[in-house]
Every structure is written in structure tokens, then in C-alpha cells.
User: Fold these one by one.
Assistant:
Number 1:
Amino acid sequence: MTLKSELTKLEITLQQSNIDNLIDKMLDNIGSIDPELRDTLIYNSFGKLIMEDYLTQKQINHILEVCLRNLFLDIGEKETDSVFTRSFSALVIVLILMKDRENRFLPDDIVIEAIQGSIQYLKLEVDVRGHVVGKGWAHSIAHGADLLTEAIKHPSFSIMLSSDCLEAIKQCLFKESTNQVPYVDDEEERLIFAVEALQEIGVTDNEIENWIVSISDELSALEKEGYSLNFFWKKSNVINFLRGFYFRLLYKNERLNIQEIITKILEHWYSRSYNHTQ
């Protein structure tokens, strides 16, 4: 029986098969280029097994250890299929951290490794493709943002890591793209959720304000190098991110001082765009 068949009839498979063998086959194929197997079947099956308590602590530890290794598999490559392994391993780690947040069972050292790994992954990932024709979602930045958000929400997260998290998020806005196109698959929104998670654990408005200004300053430095597709792509990422963050704050009717700073920065870049077209 193929893995697809086993996962399509998961309830029957769980009654008749060795779960350890099933887990290993799922982990071996977690980065399959078949989107139905990878996204619909393997990821959803991991969700069921983890969240509905089908697994022992030893089995969950094994899954987490493999996924943490996978997170950095061939990191630094662009336009290769290894991105699917990294990206979907990140999503499985999200499930495990979420489960551990409900009922602590993971060893402290592996939780800390997962938290630190979530930050490093966003910094190091260079394959920023969203949807890949014929292979489905790579979505590395969105999945990495989901992982960082869940890591921040975990009780073991230290607020001392907050500046490192903000730096990782900023770096995502300035990553290179082979196709020279801005994010178009909701990546900015997912990154905003990570910022909101930091605010919820006590990162100060002043730190967020300084960080926002530093994003604009970095874009200004890039502008001085001359107008290019690379500059306009990153400018689009920054503006879309700040605009999305502004409207999230506006919707919640909070942190007016941050809203004001974002407004000033957006006005600055809008005026630059207007003047450039004249």
C-alpha cells in the first residue's frame, strides 16, 4: 500500500499499522514535490496525530528532532526542492510547540533549540518562493513566520530574544528574490503576527518604534545605491508590511504612537514615489 493510500484512510491505517513505521515514512516524504501528499495528507495527518494525542512523548520527540534537522537542510540553496522539506518541517514544529504550550511535556533543552531554530531559520532561508507551479506551496517565509510566532508564544521563550526576532523579521523584508518580485502570498501578514506576539509578551512600544524607523532607514540606504528592480521589490515589501501593521493596530484601536510613526514613514515613501514619477 502506498503512503498516499495509508494516509487517505488514516483511521484504518492507525488500527492496522505500526505507527513508528508510518511516522518515519511521513518524515521521509515531508518535503515531497507532490502537493497532495505533502500538504494535504502528510501535514494534515501530523496535525491529527499530534493534536489528538495519538502519539507517545518519545514519538513526538523523534518527530521534533528530525524536523529541527530538516529546518536547515541545504539551507542557502535557491530554487531547489529542498525548500519544501524545510518549510513543511517548520509547520510540523509549530504543531508540536502548540501542543506543548497546552500541556508541557517536551524537555527544556529541545524547546530552547526549537525557539532558537525558529529565529535562525528566518534569517538563513533564501528561497522565498510562495507558490511553485506544479509543486504547490513552498511558502518558506510564511511558514517560518508561523514558527517564530508560535515560538514567541511558548512559555519558555525569553524576552531577551526579542531584538533578535525583530532583526529576523526585518531581514525577511530585504531578502533577495530570483524573480525580482515582492511577496504576493500573504508573507507580510504572517510576519506581522510575530510582531504582535512580541508585543503581547511585553516588548515595549519604544523598541517597536525604533525598529520601524530602522526598517525605513535601511530602505533609504538601499535607495542611495540607485533605483533598480531590487530596490522597488524591497520597497514594496516594506510598504506593504508597514501598511498591514498600521491597519492591524487601527483595527484594534491601540498603540496610537506607533500608528503615528508608521503614518509618517508611509507618507515619506509615498511622497518619494510621487516625486519620482514627476
Note: The mean pLDDT is 94.
Number 2:
Amino acid sequence: MITSFATRTLGRTGPAVSSPGLGCMGLSGAYGDVDEDQGVRVIHDYLDAGGTLLDTGDFYGAGHNETLIARALRDRSRDDVVLSVKFGALLDPVTMMGGIDTRPVALRNFLTYSLRRLGTDHVDVYRPARLDPAVPIEETVGAIADLVEQGLVRHIGLSEVGAETIRRAAAVAPICDVQLEYSVLTRGIEDEILDTCRELGIGITAYGVLGRGMIGGGGELTGGRAIQPRFQGDNRAHNEALVSRLEELARAKGATIAQLAIAWVHARGDDLVPIIGARRPEQVATMIDSAGVVLDQTDLDRIDELIPPGAVRGERYPARFMADLDSERRSGTYAISSEG
């Protein structure tokens, strides 16, 4: 295996970043406890290997994730890191779920706290975590564009929005990328969203590349995975059997199943950047070594045969969260899942 990152640009207007990027959510308890010193080491290992893209949200760990990143970057050059930050999710002290708020006055408040917690004077990519049904996307993007003019934000991103919303947002200001779930198990964006982004020159940062641990993970269900439909009952057994079909091809490539899955996203287009959530240093090494897995069209066709689009069972999120996903709407309605 080679041990270096590819470099890709987020859309026509965005920054150059390392690929894969490091998803930091899991370092703040999303999938079980992580020792803070270990979390810092994970970030350091990624950066020391040449990584540049750190993906976070101001609500990850109720702000903990941003303070952890600030600690990890304390003795590093800010210019060597691309910070992608999601905002807008509201938290409840009991349920940790409180809705979404992307009003201009709210996002300026959110950014103020993020800049303080991160210990920086700007965020490289700033994006609403979800579409706020009470706020036109034009108002939200326009307010972020004002922050770009002020130098507090460098680029505008989106997350989990559909094709119509992407077009409306791009008519207001340049959008560098849209963050969406995309993997060998989750291919819904291929129906419409991916083509729209490519038409408009907008990149995709793909999360959930390893199916939240379904690919190359396993073991006890902890944190957020415990409520995911794909891990429940017969769904889990079915989906794990699907993933096992990749074992022979992975061995032929001298790779793990996880590395194969990362390479699959990478091979789907130069406009795609996988975001991988590592919680341990050895997972960072796996991520880096995925760059040595080269897939040609024959390999991609074979993976389609092994795991056909729509073969996975269970929705991506529980029903109450699926209702918040603009990316799941088609022609004004929610998409009808073919995934059981």
C-alpha cells in the first residue's frame, strides 16, 4: 500500500483538500466513549500523514468536538488545515434533539461560538446541517455569503439537501460542496442529486462511507448505531451478509473491506471526497492505506453485482429523523425507499 492522500478540490470554487477527509463526530461520543487524549492523537496522526480536511459540527458533543479540535491544532499552522463546520442543529438537555434553526441571526450567533471554541478567526467551509423548513434557503445562504465578504467564512457548503434546494442555493452564491451519505450501501444520491451537483460544478463530501461501522466494523452496538434501522433485527443480518460478499474482491486487491469501500467512493468521480470517521489511530492508518486500492470499471461493475443499488434493508435514520432530510424528497414528496 501507498501511504499518502489524494488531493481534490471541493467543486469549482472550493478549497483543495486531502481525500479522504477526517470526520470528527465520533471523537465526541457519537459511537461510544473516546478518551480525549486519544482523540487528539487521532487528529495528529491524520495531519502528520498529510491530511488537511477536518469535518465537524458545532453541536457534536454540544461543542466538545470543536474544543477538542482546537486543542489538537494548538501548535499547528492554521493554513495547513481546512475546517468544515455544520451548524443549525438545536439540542435539548435531556433528549439531545431540538430541531433546526438556520435564521441569519441564529447562524451568526452559532459562528461566533464556533470561532471561539475552535480558536480561529475563520471557518473554511460553513454549512447548515439540515434544511430549515421555516427559513428559505436563499436567506440562509445569503447570510453566509455576507460572512464570506467579512472574511469570517471562506466557502459555503450544504448538507442533506435535494436537487431543487441545491439549485436555489447556487443561484444566490457559489456552493463548493454538499455533504451527503454515499456508500456501496447507500446510493440514493445517484437518482438526481449527483447529476445536479455535477451540472452546477458542486462537489460532494460523502459521509457514512463505512455504513456507520456496518462495513469493516461489527461488534456491540454503541452510541447512535443502536437506534439505526439498518442495525435492527433481521435487517442487520441481511446487511452484514451483503457486506460479506465484498471479502473475496477485497482480498484480491490486498485490502480490507473498509479500504475497498473507501476506494469505491473515490473511484466514482474526482468530485467526490470521502469523509471517514476514525476513533482510533489504527483506523487512521486504514484510511490512509485506502489510497493504494485502485478500482477500474470492471471492479465497479463487480461491486454492483455483489451489492446492487437498493439491496440494503432499513432506512438510514429512524423515521423521525428521515422526515428532516430534504435530500430524501423527490418532486415535493419523500422518496419511497426500495431498501425495506
Note: The longest helix spans residues 104-118.
Number 3:
Amino acid sequence: MGTHDSKQTQRTVKLGSTGPEVFPLGLGCMGMSGMYGATDDAESIRTIQTAIDRGVTLIDTGDFYGMGHNELLVAKAIAGRREKVQLSVKFGALRGPDGSWGGMDTRPAAVKNFVAYSLKRLGVDVIDIYRPARLDPSVPIEDTIGAIAELVKAGYVRHIGLSEVGVETIRRAHRVHPIVDLQIEYSLASRSPEAEIFPALAELGISATLYGVFSRGLLTGSKPKGPGDYRAYLPRFTGSNGEKNEDVVGALQRFARERNMTPGQLSVAWVLARQPAFVPVVGAKNVAQLEDSLGALTRTLSKADLAALDSIVTISGERYGAEQMKHLDSERHSHP
């Protein structure tokens, strides 16, 4: 591949018809604030800064990750490097001091309050892409997007994104203000957006930032590490699903080895090959995981590889428990 390599890693992807150009891989920072077991702030900052040095531009966070901890961490990491990154921030999830979850609030007044605190914690005067983390069932999406549109006019936000919403919500939001990307879970193990959501995005000129590329470590053979690790409660990691999925993961690991790739690289390369216009957001918690994912940019999968993977991978179990699945707008299917 020789000279082709350096070119390939320099390419950018445009987020939607109105959004920014970004490096083809984004960095998701949620895991740096204790969602998946213990973390180390110094290593987290080193990981974000290494990502920026390697050309990664899209840094994804949420104001509710670690109750502001994640934004403060990102602020330290991007100090002096602000102009090299695009910050994608999710808002709207309510937390308690004990870490509990209290639903969503995306009323216009709440949106403006959330953004004020995010700007301060991040130490920036503008957020590149601002998005509600989930649909708030008690607030019309038009009101929420309208409020962010006012923030765009006022110069506090550059672009508007969405997260985990279905086709009808995407259309309604896009009518109020151009949406640059939908953030949604997508991987070898979670392909439901292919049916209705991706075609709608293509039609509207909206991109996607794809998280959960490793299915929370399932595809790379990672296991829940004790009671603080919330994967211990996810259907794919437990019981008979967990056992069946271990066989699939074993087959994936062999497939990756035969092609001189790690399972992580295979997972990322698959997403890049299936959805070249979209941007995988990898949740690297340390420099080694980051470097591994970046290695996928120079390893391409053929059509035959993709077909072979289709026949290997059947994952058992939903991506969340029944209660959470019920509340996901992106999982509501439109019926003709």
C-alpha cells in the first residue's frame, strides 16, 4: 500500500451537507468518566492529546458523563489545541448526586442553561455540534431544535446534531434547522439503522456518527469487570446470550487474525467499509486502544470479506435491557 497509506489517513468526511469536515474516526470520551470501570485522568488526557496529534478532530462528550467530569477533562486536554478539534456535546440527561438518572429535559430554557454550563466547563466560547442525547417525550423536537437554532444565531453553537432518534423525529428536526449528523449505535452486532434510518439520512443529506462500534467491548472479547461495570446488566453479556455470543466472538477473532488485524481493527474497518460516508466514534480509554483503532484506517475489507462476516455474525440479545429499549426513539419502527 506504501504511499497510499499517508493519503488515506489524511482524508476527511463531511458531516451532512452543511456540517464540518472531520477526520474519518472520532474519539468518544464517555468511558473516561467511569461508565465502564476505573479510569485514570492523566491517561485519559494523554489519549485525547495523542488522538489530536494523530489527526483526529471530532471529540465527543456529554455534559452528564460523570456529572461534568468528562467536559472538565476534555477542557484540560484541548487547552491550547482548541482550533484543531470539533467538539460534539450531548445534553439533556438529568443526574442525581448519587449518580442516578432522572430522565430527560430538553425544554428551551433548559437547553440554554445546559449550554451555558457546558461552555464554561469546556473552557470554550462555541460548541461545534450540540445535540439532545435522547428524545424528551414531553417536549416537541421542534421546540428543542428551535432553541439550539437560536444558540447557532447567537454564535454559541455551530451545528446541530441528534442522537438515538427515529426517522419521524429526524425529519421533524431537519425541517426546523439543518441537522449535520445523527449519533447512533452501529456495529457488526447492531445493524438495525440500515433498514429505515440510514436511507432517510441519505435522502436528507445528514451524516451519522456511529458509536458502540465494539458493542461495548463484546466484539473485542472484553468482559464486564465487577459490579461497577454496567455491562454486567446488558442482555448480550449475560446468560445464554452471553454464551452464544462468545462463540461468535471466537470466530471473529480468527477472521481478524487471518487478515493480520486485531478484533478492534476488524470492527472499525467493517463500519468504514459498510458506511464510508459516516464516522465511527471509538471509545478509547487509553493510548493503546486508540492506536489500535487508528490502525483500521489502513486496513480495508473486500466485498468478499464483508459477505463472509455477514454469515459469521449473528449476535443474540438486544443492545439494552427491555426497559431502556422501550424508551429509545431510534428503535420505534414506522408501520406503513
Note: The chain has twelve helices and twelve strands.
